[in-house]
Design brief:
Layout (H helix, E strand, L loop, with lengths): L1 H12 L7 E4 L3 E2 L6 E8 L2 E8 L2 E7 L5 E7 L8 E7 L2 E10 L2 E8 L10 E7 L5 E2 L3 E4 L5 E10 L2 E10 L4 E9 L4 E9 L5 E7 L10 E6 L7 E5 L5 E10 L4 E9 L8 E8 L4 E9 L14 E8 L5 E22 L5 E24 L5 E7 L3 E4 L9 E5 L2 E8 L6 E8 L4 E5 L4 H4 L2 E2 L5 E4 L2 E8 L2 E8 L1
Antiparallel strand pairs: 1-36, 2-36, 3-4, 4-5, 5-6, 7-8, 8-9, 9-10, 11-13, 12-13, 13-14, 14-15, 16-17, 17-18, 18-19, 20-21, 21-22, 22-23, 24-25, 25-26, 26-27, 26-28, 29-30, 30-31, 31-32, 33-35, 34-35, 35-36
Length: 478
C-alpha cells in the first residue's frame, strides 16, 4: 500500500514537470463589438468551436493539431440572437437559441446531421415578451453525460409566478414538459437548476434575495422524467440566510447537493458553507450542514463577502470541493483639472474633463474541501491579482483542468507588464504547486481568455484568445 501511495505521489509531483504542449489555431477575423464565439467541446473526436462573424454563425471542427477539418454553417440563425446554447455528446451536437419575434420570446432547437448540415429548426417553447411582465431570461442546463438539456424560464403575471421547464434529449425529443403556477407571495425562482442523467429536474426557489443576495427561505422543486408538475421540498436553513446557491448532481449515487454561503441573518455577511443533500431515489431531503470558515490570509468576518463560488466538484471518495474567487467592481472618475488665471493672477474658475472608468478585479482563488459530514478537510488559497478597466473582466479569472490526482487552475498573471500564463496545481490532499506554462512569441501576442476555457479531454483544455482584430483558439495539452 505504501508503495502504491509513493508511486502516486511521484506521479503528481512530476505533474507540474510534465512538458505542456501549446497549440494555436490559425487566426480568424474578429469584430469584438459584434461577433460571438465560444469553445463547445469534443464532437466526433474533433474539437468544436462556435463563431459568429458578420451575422454568419458557423461551427468549426479542428483536429488534434487545431487544423480545420470541417466547417458547418448555421444558415438558419437569424441576424440577432438573444442567447445561444450548445449540448455536445460524442457524435451528437444540438443547438438551442432564443430570438424575439412579434413580441414573443421564442426558443428554437436544431441538431447536427451526419453530413455536418443541420436539421430544420423547431420551435420548442415561447412566451409573450412585454413590459407588463416581469420576465426572466430562458436558462439552459445540461446533464452530466450531456444526454439531456433542461430549458427553463419563469415570469410574473397577475401576482402569480409561472414556471416553464422542458427536458429535451439528444434526438430533440421532449421528455418532460412542465408549466406550473405559484401564488405564494414573495416566491421567486433562482437561476439555479439542473437535470440528472435520468431526466429528473431540479430547480431552486425561495424568497426574493435582498441587496446582499441573501435568501431566508429555500425550496427545492423536483420532478422525475416525464413529470408535468414539480414537487416542493422545503429546506431547513435553521434561521440562517444563504447566498450564491449551487446545485450539483451526483448521478452515480443518485444524490443532489445544494451548496451556498450561509449568514446569521438576512442582512449579515456570509461566514461559512451551507451543504444539504437530496436523495433522488427516496425523493427526500437528507443531511444538512453549516460549516463556519475563515480564509487563510485574513481573519476578518467579511472574508467571504466578495468570494463568488465558481465551481463545485464532487469527489469519488465522497468529498465536495468548492472553488471560490474574490471578485468585485469599482466605478471611479478619472479626469484632469485645468486652472484658468485672470489678469489679477487669481484662480477664477476651473474646468474639468473627466471620464468614468469601470474597474474589474479578480483576485485570489479559495478552495474548500468538505468531508461528507460537512466538516472541513482542508482549504487552500491561490494568490493572484487581476485588475482591468472597461472590459468586463473577460481576460481575467481562471479555467480549470480536472485531473484524477488534483486540479490545475490556469490564469493570466497580470502583476507585471508582461503577462504570464500560470497554472496552480492543487493535489487531492490540498498541496499547492504553481508553475509558469511554456509559451511562444506568437502566443504572447494574444490576450488569453482562461475563464472561457473548456476541458475537451482528460489532459487537454482549449480557450479563446484575441489580438487586435483577430481570434484564435489555444490548446494546452499535458
Amino acid at each position: 500500500m505504501r508503495k502504491i501511495l509513493l508511486i502516486a505521489l511521484i506521479i503528481f509531483c512530476s505533474f507540474d514537470g510534465i512538458t505542456q504542449k501549446i497549440t494555436l489555431s490559425e487566426k480568424e477575423e474578429l469584430n469584438m463589438r459584434d461577433d460571438d464565439f465560444m469553445v463547445i467541446g469534443t464532437v466526433r473526436n474533433l474539437t468544436s468551436v462556435y463563431r459568429n462573424h458578420q451575422a454568419i454563425g458557423e461551427i468549426v471542427f479542428y483536429n488534434k493539431n487545431l487544423i480545420k477539418e470541417k466547417i458547418s454553417t448555421m444558415t438558419f440563425l437569424p441576424a440577432t440572437v438573444l442567447k445561444i446554447n450548445f449540448t455536445a455528446r460524442a457524435e451528437k451536437l444540438s443547438v438551442f437559441y432564443v430570438v424575439k419575434e412579434n413580441r414573443k420570446q421564442n426558443v428554437y432547437m436544431a441538431k447536427l446531421k451526419d453530413d455536418y448540415t443541420w436539421t430544420e429548426p423547431v420551435l420548442l417553447v415561447g412566451s409573450p415578451f412585454g413590459s407588463y411582465r416581469n420576465s426572466n431570461d430562458y436558462m439552459f442546463s445540461s446533464s452530466e453525460d450531456k444526454s439531456k438539456t433542461l430549458v427553463y424560464h419563469s415570469f410574473s403575471e397577475n401576482d402569480m409566478t409561472i414556471l416553464q421547464a422542458l427536458v429535451v434529449n439528444e434526438e430533440l425529443a421532449v421528455e418532460s414538459n412542465i408549466e406550473q403556477s405559484y401564488n405564494e407571495q414573495g416566491f421567486s425562482m433562482t437561476n439555479e437548476a439542473t437535470v440528472a442523467d435520468d431526466g429528473s429536474v431540479f430547480i431552486a426557489a425561495g424568497d426574493a434575495p435582498n441587496s446582499k443576495g441573501n435568501m431566508q427561505d429555500l425550496v427545492l422543486l423536483s420532478g422525475v422524467k416525464g413529470a408535468t408538475s414539480l414537487q416542493q421540498h422545503p429546506v431547513d436553513l435553521n434561521h440562517n440566510a444563504i447566498s450564491d446557491l449551487h446545485l450539483t448532481a451526483d448521478n452515480q449515487h443518485h444524490n443532489l447537493y445544494l451548496s451556498a454561503y450561509f449568514a446569521d441573518g438576512r442582512y449579515s455577511s456570509p461566514r461559512g458553507i451551507f451543504m444539504s443533500m437530496y436523495d433522488m431515489a427516496n425523493q427526500t431531503m437528507s443531511s444538512t450542514h453549516f460549516t463556519p470558515l475563515a480564509l487563510q490570509i485574513s481573519s476578518s468576518k467579511s472574508d467571504l463577502r466578495d468570494l463568488k463560488i465558481r465551481n463545485v466538484f464532487l469527489k469519488k471518495t465522497g468529498e465536495m470541493e468548492i472553488v471560490a474567487e474574490k471578485t468585485f467592481q469599482n466605478i471611479r472618475n478619472v479626469g484632469s483639472i485645468t486652472p484658468v488665471i485672470s489678469s489679477s493672477l487669481l484662480l477664477t474658475n476651473m474646468t474639468e474633463s473627466a471620464r468614468v472608468v469601470h474597474e474589474f478585479s479578480y483576485d485570489e482563488i479559495a478552495v474548500f474541501n468538505l468531508k461528507p459530514d460537512g466538516s472541513l478537510a482542508w482549504s487552500q488559497t491561490v494568490l493572484k491579482d487581476q485588475t482591468t478597466n472597461d472590459d468586463n473582466g473577460i481576460f481575467s479569472s481562471f479555467g480549470v483542468l480536472q485531473h484524477r490526482l488534483g486540479n490545475a487552475y490556469i490564469f493570466s498573471d497580470m502583476s507585471s507588464k508582461q503577462y504570464r500564463l500560470l497554472a496552480a496545481y492543487i493535489s487531492a490532499n490540498g498541496q499547492l504547486t504553481v508553475k509558469e506554462l511554456q509559451s511562444s512569441e506568437e502566443v504572447d501576442d494574444y490576450n488569453l481568455m482562461p475563464r472561457s476555457a473548456v476541458q475537451i479531454s482528460k489532459s487537454e483544455i482549449v480557450m479563446p484568445c484575441v489580438s487586435k482584430n483577430y481570434l484564435c483558439f489555444l490548446k494546452i495539452s499535458y
